[in-house]
Amino acid sequence: MPSSQNGWPLSQPNARTRWTMPQITGSVLAGPVWVVLFNLIVRFADRVEPVQRTKSWGYSYRRIAGSSKWSNHASATAVDLNAPAHPAGRKGTFTKTQYATIKAILGELGGVVRHGEVFSDGMHFEIAPKTSRAEVTKVATRLLQARLVAHGHDLGDYGPRKDGVDGVRGDKTDAAVKAFQVAHDLDDDGIDGPKTWAALITTPAKE
User: Fold this and answer.
1) pLDDT at residue 88, as a whole number
2) Beta strands in 63-161 (DSSP E)
3) What is the value of pTM for the model shown?
4) Which residues of the chain fall short of a pLDDT of 50?
5) What is the structure's pLDDT at 157?
6) Contact call for residues 79 and 56 (beta carbons, < 8 A)
7) What would the DSSP string read from start to end of 32-57?
8) What is the distance in angstroms between the CA of the first residue and the CA of the last residue of the chain?
9) What is the pLDDT of residue 203?
């Protein structure tokens, strides 16, 4: 199967394996990739600059401009944020403070996301080349677990921080997702999709 530049399989235009991304126009590969990029955008909007939805996008079935390689947008593993302010081909469109913040955010996401600044495309963020599904899944699970713990769910006394945030999707994590969904009038399907994540982000955490 053909793949995009970062090694992920292309997502066909009629595929039902993408979820709409609320902060931008377009969609992203459903599941862990969506979770990671959703959290990237939430952090970016909160700590770097507001995201303009009509000037930001995700999936696009196309090749890289001027290249025979498929764009990572074609595998639904990339997003562009505030394109006019950070056009391709131009570096230095963020302040030093913003660059430092972006670097910190990428660190929080376990290094599975790469900023397009490395090839003069400041708007662009993508699942980094040679990053496996297992690596993305582990980061997405940790992000989910951290939000569940913040909402008062007990995931057990294990993991590096001894709070259950270990990146392993076990029974306690699944049960906590369903409990959260029930408490917020969502379908208790155990899937941390767009509606569940919207509630996880917008509902005040427990103090």
Assistant:
1) 92
2) 78-80, 113-115, 124-127
3) 0.95
4) none
5) 66
6) yes
7) HHHHHHHHHHHHHHHHT----GGG-B
8) 48
9) 82
Decide: 82 and 52 in contact? Cβ < 8 Å. Answer: yes
CB atoms within 10 A of CB 207: 5
Q: Give the CA distances from residue 127 to residues 12, 26, 36, 111, in Å, rounded to whole numbers and listed in that order.
A: 18, 17, 9, 9
Structure tokens belonging to residue 20: 């709409």
- Cα 7 to Cα 2, 40, 103, 172, distances in angstroms: 9, 20, 23, 33
Say if residues 99 and 66 touch (Cβ distance below 8 Å).
no
Residue with tokens 């292309």: 10
- CA–CA separation, 169 vs 108, rounded Å? 19
Burial class (CB within 10 angstroms; exposed 0-12, middle 13-18, buried 19+) of 190: middle
Which whole-number Å values give the CA distances from 115 to 30, 37, 89, 107, 197, in the listed order? 21, 12, 14, 11, 23
Q: Which residues contact 43 (CB under 8 A, 6 or more apart)?
A: 105, 108
Q: The tokens of 84 are what?
A: 């006019």
Integer Cα distance of 13 and 16 in angstroms: 9
Whether residue 21 contacts residue 34, with contact meaning beta carbons closer than 8 Å, is answered with: yes
Residue type, 134: A
